[in-house]
Write a structure and sequence with these properties.
heterodimer; A: about 260 residues; alpha+beta; five-stranded antiparallel beta sheet; about 10% strand; B: about 220 residues; eight-stranded mixed beta sheet; 4 helices
């Protein structure tokens, strides 16, 4: 198939890009061939794209993005709610799949309707969960995007590879490193977990969490109420800047809070 | 430490291999629902478990199997040149004695499947890479879940797509998966950077000392 030849070419070229701009220039024509005229990859390194709009990349519809930000549509965008896929397993999903969800609020439906008015009739969301504490996402849309497994696979390939390259470029740029250097795993401006603020009691909870105990079991062992343990877990997640307990364990290990 | 079982020392691990086949059946058929793999003897043993297959097993001090994986050369039947051949739409799996396929990765102990158990996962993969480097294997290919491929983007690996993500299974009661065929290139730098990234300072492979003490683990300094 001709499409696969284009993907092979893309895979050769993507490893040669030297900047985010070159990356964007590489993906734009390929995406356009499949009816995508708005593409944005956000939350790289777990960063929210707002308020400082970094780091992210894409080839977006400026009019839609401006409208999206100015009207605060990000507050009610159902796409971000399902950042790890509709089945929470990282599979891509279409905007029309979200529209079919019964529990959508009126505000969420309004966002979808406004995207339609901006000629973004169908979209695809690709979760890019690199680790427990890093959920990126690529969302793309257009007027003529077809629901097709081959096209979906190709767009997924483009997103995975472009995101992978973007991470490398951002890390290289932020750390002033040469190509081929061993890269650290985070950007310097990544919000640093406040490990020094984790209390001894919270460290104890983290140790039990790392031993694969749930909040109920930890409450029993520590002779505390479940409410107390959940509050401690919430505090831990906030201090370590993660969304999940598994992410908290990962960060705690990385910063040697626990063995 | 990870034990490497090949046709040369298999006779020392017969009971352990049998336990492994039983565990694989429990996990892949019983837990994951791959009912097409079900066997009446309760052992998951398929056409890729041959004399040429090498097994990597994490054993605890009581020789209980905690996890494992297998690999075999691409010069014989592999998943990517038979059952998953149709998925290699970008590039065919290379056929060469220096290119192998890996599959049937499993962790038997629930503890080791969680974030808490990540060191076991790392040890198994690192051991396979160390072994591959040592014997001159240039790449390992296989069919993996797309979510795992995305996570591999964080690693200093040259992992190439042989196909695009696509659904598989979902028929006759089997679960629906979403995966793709890949090829991981192996060189000294890859192994070195992997060990740094995962803080694996010590060697991971167990050395079989033959008939007298088949299971003794020994360490050696990596070159």
């Amino acid at each position: 198939m001709d499409e696969f030849r284009k993907v092979r070419l893309f895979l050769e070229e993507v490893n040669k890009v030297e900047s985010i701009k070159s990356l964007e220039a590489l993906i734009a024509p390929l995406l356009a061939e499949f009816g995508i005229r708005h593409y944005i990859c956000t939350n790289i390194y777990g960063f929210s794209p707002l308020p400082d709009m970094k780091p992210f990349f894409g080839t977006w519809d400026s009019g839609w993005v401006q409208h999206y930000i100015q009207c605060g549509l990000f507050r009610d965008d159902a796409v971000t709610v399902y950042s790890n896929g509709l089945e929470n397993d990282g599979r891509p999903y279409y905007w029309s799949d979200i529209a079919a969800i019964k529990g959508l609020t009126e505000a969420q439906r309004k966002v979808m309707a406004e995207a339609w008015d901006a000629d973004l009739h169908e979209g695809l969301v690709i979760p890019l969960r690199v680790s427990d504490d890093e959920f990126a996402m690529a969302s793309m849309g257009g007027r003529d995007l077809k629901r097709d497994p081959i096209i979906q696979g190709i767009l997924h390939t483009v997103s995975i590879q472009a995101h992978r390259m973007a991470r490398i470029l951002l890390l290289r740029e932020a750390n002033s490193l040469e190509k081929g250097s061993f890269l650290p795993n985070r950007l310097p401006q990544s919000p640093k977990p406040k490990v020094e603020k984790v209390t001894e009691a919270e460290r104890e909870v983290l140790r039990w969490l790392a031993a694969d105990l749930g909040p109920g079991e930890i409450a029993t062992i520590r002779k505390r109420s479940l409410n107390t343990i959940n509050k401690q877990l919430s505090s831990i997640r906030s201090k370590l800047i993660v969304d999940t307990n598994a992410g908290a364990v990962t960060v705690a290990r990385n910063y040697r809070l626990i063995n | 430490m990870i034990h490497v079982i090949s046709k040369y020392n298999r006779h020392l691990y017969e009971n352990i291999l049998d336990e492994m086949f039983k565990l694989r059946h429990d996990i892949f058929v019983g837990e994951r629902g791959w009912i097409n793999l079900a066997k009446s003897d309760g052992r998951d043993r398929d056409q890729f478990d041959t004399e040429d297959t090498i097994y990597f097993l994490k054993l605890d001090p009581d020789m209980k199997v905690l996890g494992g994986m297998r690999m075999y050369p691409t010069t014989i039947d592999t998943q990517l040149n038979t059952i998953f051949k149709h998925t290699c739409v970008l590039q065919s799996q290379p056929v060469d004695p220096k290119h192998w396929e890996w599959s049937r990765y499993f962790i038997a102990e629930p503890r080791y499947r969680s974030a808490a158990g990540k060191p076991v996962h790392y040890e198994l993969y690192t051991a396979i890479l160390e072994y591959a480097l040592e014997v001159g294997i240039k790449s390992l290919s296989g069919f993996i879940e797309t979510s795992i491929f995305v996570q591999s983007g964080k690693m200093p690996w040259d992992m190439r797509q042989l196909g695009i993500p696509m659904e598989y299974g979902g028929k006759d009661g089997e679960p629906l998966g979403y995966g793709l065929p890949i090829q991981l290139m192996i060189d000294r730098d890859t192994v070195r950077k992997t060990k740094i990234a995962w803080r694996m300072v010590k060697p991971c492979l167990s050395l079989s000392l033959g008939e007298e003490s088949p299971y003794r683990e020994t360490g050696f300094r990596p070159r």
